[in-house]
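User: Before I run my own analysis I want an independent prediction to cross-check against. Here's the chain; please return only the structure tokens and, at the end, one sentence I can use as a sanity check.
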Amino acid sequence: MAQNNIFGTELESCSLSPITGFFRNGCCETDETDFGKHTICVVMTDDFLKFSMQVGNDLSTPRPEFAFPGLKEGDRWCVCLGRWIEALRAGRAPKIVPEACHEDVLEHVPMQILIDYAWNKTE
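Assistant: Structure tokens:
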């Protein structure tokens, strides 16, 4: 069954290169087994990667044993909603791709904040 984005339309792909998502299908889909709620599609920044490492989640180091290439600035990735909110509160949240963010994000983040953090392809 198709899952929806924050606009109530079909959830778009976040990234196939590198392949992202809790289910590694390119989308920020979720279900009851996704305890981290990997539901928000972000466009990585060096600042967010440093922040994430500082709070205990190294996203930049490759982990071949998990087929994880390591992320760099500009990569799109489904991150844990709680980590993004933590970065938002710290003033270090990266831009998001709204069409690729799962509708469940709206249970924790107001729509206006998501719109304010929407990534513009010309950036």
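Sanity check: The domain at 1-123 is CATH 3.30.56.110 (Phenylalanyl-tRNA Synthetase; Chain B, domain 1).
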